From TrEMBL:
InterPro entries: ABC_transptr_periplasmic_BD, Bact_iron-sidero_bind. The keyword Hydrolase does not apply. Residues 1-21 form the signal peptide. PROSITE patterns: FE_B12_PBP, PROKAR_LIPOPROTEIN. Keywords: Signal, Transport. This is Iron(III) dicitrate transport system, periplasmic iron-binding protein FecB. GO terms for cellular component: outer membrane-bounded periplasmic space. It is found in: Cell envelope. It holds the Pfam family Peripla_BP_2.
């Protein structure tokens, strides 16, 4: 879990000055950018209460990767977005992000930079930025979901409501359902018989992903069963040690790595004799996939990308 550091509040006075100078919008009740002009004002209920949003926002700032995926999936290129960590950039699977302004990181959004962009909507979650909701809502109407990851579909609906794009969201999810159907047809009789394991190597930690995660929901939607240790309504087995390697087994193992390769746990885990004994390892059924797509995306475009990966790796198509 990523928490906001205290030093995040450095610069709040500068933000207030910008607001007084007319750069930002009023508190959560009015738009601060291009969504005005007498457009209808809608009241959006969300994790932090209610926010009035005017018209169809055109200058959106997103403060997590899920919100970025939602916006881009709905045809909105945000004016500002955060990186997951400094220097990582925006998720590589998304196209058309080159002109989006960097407004800090998930852990430390740059409030002053956000204000200078004059957004008419800010999207994030209570999990990530509940402690600075007040400051954000002074800049522009701000809508928060409760959390991220496993709730990506409900989050998309809330993001679409805030951006006045509910029709687009329905089309996006219809496309996702069609993609799942095509995948099921490609898998045929193997669909309900192929247990899929998901393992992530991070600096100093290995995670075994379970059902209550973004990728867990996509695998369930796709009709793919999980190994017993992963077929659990929890997020993940965190800090998995070498003793947990048997829990990483499955008919097919999908692995991702986050962070500098030399700092991740990959070498330690994959060189262990227990890893080498896994059937999927011995039979060449371990698949390296994009961490951006499988772990950071958390939205409909990422979900379809995961299904694309599954079809390529499991059917060769």
């Amino acid at each position: 879990m990523i928490w906001i550091k205290k030093r995040l509040f450095v610069g709040v006075l500068a933000v207030s000055a910008l607001l007084l100078a007319g750069c930002g919008g009023a508190g959560g009740g009015s738009a601060g950018g291009s969504g005005g002009g007498g457009s209808e004002v809608r009241t959006v209920e969300h994790a932090m209460g209610e926010t009035e949003v005017e018209g169809t926002p055109g200058r959106v700032v997103v403060l997590d990767t899920g919100e970025l995926d939602s916006a881009m999936s709905l045809g909105v290129t945000p004016v500002g977005a955060v990186e997951a960590v400094e220097g990582l950039g925006l998720p590589s699977y998304l196209e058309g992000t080159g002109e989006i302004e960097n407004v800090g990181t998930i852990e430390e959004p740059n409030l002053e930079k956000i204000a200078t962009l004059e957004p008419d909507l800010i999207l994030s979650s209570k999990l990530r930025h509940g402690s600075i909701y007040g400051q954000l809502s002074q800049i522009a109407p701000t809508v928060f979901t409760k959390t991220t990851g496993v709730t990506w579909k409900a989050n998309l609906e809330k993001h679409a409501e805030a951006m006045n794009r509910t029709g687009e969201a329905e089309k996006v999810m219809d496309g996702y359902e069609k993609r799942l159907g095509d995948f099921g047809n490609a898998m045929g009789d193997r669909l309900g018989e192929t247990e899929v394991s998901v393992v992530r190597f991070l600096p100093g930690e290995t995670r075994i992903y379970q059902k209550a995660s973004f990728v867990g929901t996509v695998l369930e939607d796709a009709g793919l069963p999980r190994p017993p240790s992963q077929d659990v309504d929890e997020f993940a087995i965190l800090n998995a040690s070498e003793e947990a390697i048997p829990d990483m087994g499955g008919d097919e193992i999908f692995v991702t790595a986050y962070g500098p390769e030399e700092e991740t746990t990959r070498e330690r885990i994959t060189s262990d004799p227990l890893w080498q004994k896994l059937d999927a390892v011995r039979e060449g059924r371990v698949h390296e996939v994009s961490d951006d797509l499988w772990m950071l995306g958390i939205g409909p475009t990422a979900a379809e990308g995961v299904v694309d990966d599954l079809e390529r790796r499991l059917t060769g198509k």
